[in-house]
Amino acid sequence: MRIGVPKEIKNNEFRVGLVPGSVKELTERGHSVLVQTGAGAGIGSSDEEYVAAGAEIAPDAAKVFADSEMIVKVKEPQEVEWKQLRADQLLFTYLHLAPDPAQTIGLMESGCTAIAYETVTDNAGGLPLLAPMSEVAGRLSVIEGGYYLKRTAGGRGVLLSGVPGVEPANIVVIGGGVVGTNAAKLALGMGSRVTILDRSVPRLRYLDDIFSGQAITRYSTTQAIEESLATADMVVGAVLVPGAAAPRLVRRDHLGMMRPGSVLVDVAIDQGGCFETSKATTHQDPVYDVDGIVHYCVANMPGSVPRTSSQALNNATLPFTLALAQHGEKALEMDKHLMNGLNVKAGRIVHPAVIEALGENPTL
User: Fold this and answer.
1) Could you say which of 3, 86, 156, 244 has the lowest number of CB atoms within 10 Å?
2) What is the pLDDT of residue 246?
3) Model-level pTM?
4) Superfamily of domain 2-120+306-358
5) Sheet holding 193-198, edge to edge
6) Which residue of the set 31, 96, 254, 295 is catalytic?
């Protein structure tokens, strides 16, 4: 199969769909890989490194889309990209369609077969291709939130760790999955006081066990959220419903319960966000203020650490990429977990969560 890797064009997105090591795995199995010039610049990989791995270099994205049977990306295609897709192509990337009817319609009109990293499953019921970026985003949420807690950055002027004689920051994590666990891990490591809310009692038991009681765990109810917000310096939104729009758990009227200068970090923004006042931002312009509360809602947080993120992503996606390259669409029939990644095919939405969010015929 001929696999194409275009350069990512989303604002401040420096990751790449295939790192040179993954390209080598594909070319050694007889596949050809066409990489847009400069696609690996953000991770420090030159065109020469890709050529050494067996790739061909394309002068622009148009040639990549025109000459490839499968497109491998990181972020969802932008309008200029989905207009270049066609019915005989596979697209393998993050899609996050539930809050994005425009992209969904564009993919449907292209006729392509679109497989989303974020809905591929595994035997344990997990999301193995979402997990590595969730790990990165969870850890970054505390780093970025801690930066914006500084008074010079618009926050309350609180140091995450505190110092002897001064209490540390109170960090509330809503959602105890991969994002929330990694956020809590980093926050505890930096000396913060951490509360994790989740609606799964077994998960809360697990979190209490792995953190040896250092993190406070609470069953997530509206009352528990409100009580936690009142004392929070930072709130990390880490709620995920696979393929679906994120539930809005913090309403605008809740902001009045919070301390002025507190920070909300919405890691669920790719799926529409779990705070009512969330709107997607970029690394170029990452924060805004609503009612005295700082909102950080960057939709591609791992893009700021592209070397780590691209390698971690490729470690997870490579086996599926190899299967698709070897078997084409038949790979979906051969692997039920990869089949769960199928979101759009032949002009139709086929993933139940996306249908529930947008209907079978979405409109703008």
Assistant:
1) 86
2) 87
3) 0.91
4) NAD(P)-binding Rossmann-like Domain (3.40.50.720)
5) 216-219, 193-198, 170-174, 234-237, 263-266, 293-296, 287-290
6) 96
